[in-house]
Amino acid sequence: MPNLKPETLNPKPGAALDPAVLAADIRRWGAELGFDAVGIAEPELAVDEGHLLRWLRDGRHGEMSWMGRHGVKRARPAQLVPGTRRVICVRKDYRPPDAAADDAVLADPRRAFIARYAVGRDYHKLLRRRLQRLAERIQARIGPFGYRAFVDSAPVLEKALARNAGLGWIGKNTLLLNREGGSYFFLGELFTDLALPADAPPTEHCGSCRACIDVCPTGAITGPYQLDARRCISYLTIEHHGPIPEHLRPAIGNRVFGCDDCQAVCPWNRYARPTDEADFQPRHGLDSPQLVSLFRWDEATFLERTAGSPIRRLGHERWLRNLAVALGNGPADPDAIAALRERESHPSELVREHVVWALGRLGANPG
């Protein structure tokens, strides 16, 4: 990764030199590019580094070995990208306005619940393109400067940086919360060598509320601001590669890709803004699909239906694993049992094991 250039605010002839004016312009340009909020962060994360190291030491990251692979660079932006002086942080809301209601889908055990960030197109390229365009607008104003854009593409403590940029506070569920926007949003960063005025972190507003802690189906939020990823449904259905621990399977219910429970119950999400982004609208009916229908997708159908979707990174094997668990948690419908039996001889041991478990849960002995 190249270093940022050491020059700062190297304007074109006649360009404004005032960093405060440039910061205001950056916020305006970000809004014009479709970001829902823009802030500027001081990249000082010493306290967050301590939290990260303790979390890793306690093994709460599970199989996510990449969380510790880069040492302390994740909490030290100037080590990750030498020359970094400020981080421009952006927020993009993603909650689809016309998606089926979460509680209605979760209450129907024949349907699959998919975290709302994943029912539309993948966000990585969209945000990265817009960050690049923001950098180009800055360059058009001041001339060449050093920058690197990131959207989940490097070891970055994005929530901590966004907090420093004034975009919200880190809540008891460990997500970034915003008084006007809730938590249904994506984050992106532009590391820069610009000496811009930094925003101030907001005060926290969780108070005595513990709704997110109490609602977590698997008890993954072990206390305020403490998450054990090894119990988290989002981790188990997305990041985890092996068998899902049997004692946690019943609590997963019909959640087949991620979990929004700790967001849905958060009082601040009463103010979550629906997205105006067409790419984030539900595709292929994934906001309320039938479990049996999804389970019968062959690999070619899976690849075709998840093209451009965050779901594709699962692969067909883990997709079937997750769906088998959900089917096992549902009613013993003849269609569900028949669909499971069709996968009893699947080439993957991982799939077969979860199918056998599901059939046992439904009172149907393996064939």
From TrEMBL:
Chain sites annotated for binding cob(II)alamin: 74, 152, 173, 176, 187, 234, 259-260
Main location: cytoplasm
Catalytic activity: epoxyqueuosine(34) in tRNA + AH2 = queuosine(34) in tRNA + A + H2O
Keyword tags: 4Fe-4S, Cobalamin, Cobalt, Cytoplasm, Iron, Iron-sulfur, Metal-binding, Oxidoreductase, Queuosine biosynthesis, tRNA processing
GO biological process: tRNA queuosine(34) biosynthetic process
Cofactor binding description: Binds 2 [4Fe-4S] clusters per monomer.
Protein name: Epoxyqueuosine reductase
Organism: Sediminicurvatus halobius
Encoding gene (name): queG
